[in-house]
Write a structure and sequence with these properties.
Helix content of chain B: under 10%
Largest interface: A-B, 27 and 27 residues
Strand content of chain A: over 45%
Number of strands of chain A: 11
Shape of chain B: globular
Radius of gyration of chain B: 13 Å
Distance between the termini of chain A: 37 Å
Structural class of chain A: mainly beta
Distance between the termini of chain B: 38 Å
Strand content of chain B: over 45%
Oligomer: heterodimer
Radius of gyration of chain A: 13 Å
Order of helices and strands of chain A: EEEEEEEEEEE
Number of helices of chain A: 0
Chain lengths: 114, 112
C-alpha cells in the first residue's frame, strides 16, 4: 500500500538553528499538507500546498516557516530559527483531491528544540 | 475558539462490545466531518467521513452519525477489538478551505 514517508524520524536541535523536515508524498497525490502535534495535544494545521504554491496557511505558519517541493518529489518544511515552542511532532499529509477530508499522513518527524 | 471538541477524554470498553465516541461541533459551515484514529507513535489514519448533508454513513465495523440539529457527531465501532485501542479524533473541513480542524481526541482502551 502506498504511503507517505518522512525524514528524519527524530531531530534534536539548538534554539535558533534551522531545521528542514522532508516528506515523500504518495506518487499520484496532488495536495500536500503539514500539520503539527504538540505532545498530548490535538493535531493542528500549518499549511497546504498545491501546484507548487501555498494554497492556505494557519496563523502558526509565520515568517519562520516555509515549504517547497524543489525536485518534484520531496516536499519540505523549513523552520528558519527554531524556538523552544516549535518542539512537536510534525506530520506531512497528502491527498488525491481537495473535496473530502481524507488525508494520508506520514509517521511524523519529532522535533526537539533545546 | 475551538469549534470541534470531544465529550470524554478516555473510553474503556470490553473486547467484543460496541464503542461510541462522541464529538460536538459549533461551526455549521462545514462540508465534511471526519474521524481519524491515531495509534501510539504513528500519524493519524483516516477512518471514515460524512458529508454535511448526510445523517449516517457506514463502513467496515464503523458507523458515523451526524445530528445537525444538536451539532453532534458520533463514531460507532462494532465488536471492538484490541487493535481498535487508539486515540480517536473528530475533524471538520470547512466550506472553501483545505485545512482540517481537529478536536482534542478520545482515548479508547479495549479491555480483553
Amino acid at each position: 500500500e502506498p504511503e507517505v514517508t518522512q525524514t528524519p524520524s527524530h531531530q534534536v536541535t539548538q534554539m535558533g538553528q534551522e531545521v528542514i523536515l522532508r516528506c515523500v508524498p504518495i506518487s499520484n497525490h496532488l495536495y500536500f499538507y503539514w500539520y503539527r502535534q504538540i505532545l498530548g495535544q490535538k493535531v493542528e494545521f500549518l499549511v497546504s500546498f498545491y501546484n507548487n504554491e501555498i494554497s492556505e496557511k494557519s496563523e502558526i505558519f509565520d515568517d519562520q516557516f516555509s515549504v517547497e517541493r524543489p525536485d518534484g518529489s520531496n516536499f519540505t518544511l523549513k523552520i528558519r530559527s527554531t524556538k523552544l515552542e516549535d518542539s512537536a511532532m510534525y506530520f506531512c499529509a497528502t491527498s488525491q483531491g481537495e473535496v473530502t477530508g481524507e488525508l494520508f499522513f506520514g509517521e511524523g518527524s519529532r522535533l526537539t528544540v533545546l | 475558539g475551538e469549534s470541534v471538541g470531544l465529550h470524554l477524554p478516555t473510553l474503556s470498553v470490553q473486547e467484543g462490545d460496541n464503542s461510541i465516541i462522541n464529538c460536538a461541533y459549533s461551526n455549521s459551515a462545514s462540508d465534511y466531518f471526519i474521524w481519524y484514529k491515531q495509534e501510539s507513535g504513528k500519524g493519524p489514519q483516516f477512518i471514515i467521513d460524512i458529508r454535511s448533508n448526510m445523517d449516517k454513513r457506514q463502513g467496515q465495523r464503523v458507523t458515523v452519525l451526524l445530528n445537525k440539529t444538536v451539532k453532534h457527531l458520533s463514531l460507532q465501532i462494532a465488536a471492538t477489538q484490541p487493535g481498535d485501542s487508539a486515540v480517536y479524533f473528530c475533524a471538520e473541513k470547512k466550506t472553501g478551505r483545505r485545512a482540517l480542524t481537529f478536536g482534542s481526541g478520545t482515548r479508547l482502551q479495549v479491555q480483553p
